[in-house]
Amino acid sequence: MVDELLRASYNDMVRAFVNLLDVCEPGEGDHAERVAVYAVATAEKMGWSNENLVHLRRAALLHDVGKVAIDRNLLRKLGDLDEDDLNGLRLHAAMAESLLSALPWLAPAIPMIRHHHERWDGEGYPARLCGAAIPPGARVIAVAEVFDHVAYGSSYREPMGREEACAEISAHSGTQFDPEVVTAFLKIESVIQPA
Fold first, then answer.
1. What is the CATH number of the domain that holds 70?
2. What is the domain range of residue 123?
3. pLDDT of the chain, 195 residues: tens digit per residue
4. Side-chain half-sphere of 23: how many Cα atoms within 13 Å?
5. Which of 65, 115, 122, 149 is least surrounded, with the fewest CB atoms within 10 Å of its CB?
6. How many C-alpha atoms does 193 have within 13 Å on its Cβ side?
7. Nearest by Cα to 152 from 42, 58, 38, 60
């Protein structure tokens, strides 16, 4: 009974953070939900344990929560971004880590959140990790997030559709994305219909 209440409290807290993000940046809540659906389905296909799936789901839901600390004007800026703009946006992963690190039960999710913009080839951020040095959950979230932005659009990108999104994911397998994650994702993509 106590474990169930604690788990429900954790889920309620994650939901509150997602709602806060959506208030600050409308549409981010739906994006977080879709990323979580795709990430968990991909990791299930890869054979992850239930415990690891729980941590991944939390990380996927909270991967952009650091945006609550980023200037709203920057988040909504249209057109080309200069290097200062990009550096400001890139702070959202570290901001999320700072915000969430006070919650010990989220400790397994934090590396996934912090490193979800790393690239398989080492050209990502914040730490320029490459290959297997990138936390597995971060590799899964990276694929799910890019798919969602390409397929469904965002404040800075028109939606291109699922087919185009799959093509982009495939084109960047082995450079931006872990090839094993891409393979698993492409197997589940057509059968998963997030709300």
1. 1.10.3210.10
2. 2-191
3. 668 888 899 999 999 999 999 998 888 999 999 999 999 999 999 999 999 999 999 999 999 999 988 877 777 766 677 788 777 788 889 999 999 999 999 999 999 999 999 999 999 999 999 999 999 999 999 999 999 999 998 766 788 999 999 999 999 999 999 999 999 999 998 887 765
4. 7
5. 122
6. 1
7. 38
What is the tally of structural domains in the chain? Answer: 1
Point out which residues pair with 157 in neighbouring strands.
Answer: 154
Say if CB 143 and CB 185 are below 8 A apart: yes
Q: Which are the catalytic amino acids? A: 67
Q: pTM of the entire structure?
A: 0.93
- Evaluate whether 188 touches 140 at the Cβ level (below 8 Å): no
